[in-house]
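Figure 2 data, in text form.
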Amino acid sequence: MSKIEHDCVLVKKEILNSENLFLTFESQEIAEQAQPGQFIDLKGAAFLRRPFGIASVNRDRGQFGIGIKKKSAGTAYFFEAKLGNIYSVLGPLGNGFNFEGLKNIFLIGGGTGIYPLLFVLEKAKEIGIKTYIATGFRSQEDILLEEEMGRIATELCIATEDGSAHLKGYAQQALEKLWSEHGEAKPDTGLFCCGPQPMMKMAAVWAESLNLQCQVSTEERMACGIGICRTCAVRVKDLISGELNYDRCCLEGPVFNAEVIQW
């Protein structure tokens, strides 16, 4: 069984804006094993471990990155992190996105949900899959990872709610624009979603109307990260029996086929 607890050295810290930062850690084991959609549980100070989606991996350097938004004392702690600090990390954890049979992937992300999608773009480019990503932010000042995603994706479309940059509107409008220009509902085309639940639900309904396979990365609060505490339960439906049940976001997820999720 692979070791899941690692001591990881912080090797890079990027302040993206007043609320967001990007941390890069060194861990050959995590870098080698991580797949898009998986997450890590990071321990800081006296607080509980915090789950963060893996946002980027450099296997040659043995490094992985995560994005963090300042939401509480627990996440604010990492804004004071110093290079060279060693952190206890559990990972990689959970089940990620399934790329099998896909040649074109449309992506939609909002909020901190855009971070894991950067790793999806990296992987897709590596294996020759075209990617069209739609993201939504409140204003120009809130836009994250524009350069990084624009460099990797086949095409990036950004929406801002106030119209201060790019398309005026929401991520859904950006997705619809990309689809109108590049989309065709085929078995080799899929939609990957990560972000606020209302956005993902809307995208899942939209994908269903096109008979488009859709995968969503859920963001339930995960305490233990390894399936023991069951605080991250997600209500799902068995597509064969119709039976309703609860899966664990941290273990069976965080990525699920959208059709099983009971929104």
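Caption note: The chain has a mean pLDDT of 94.
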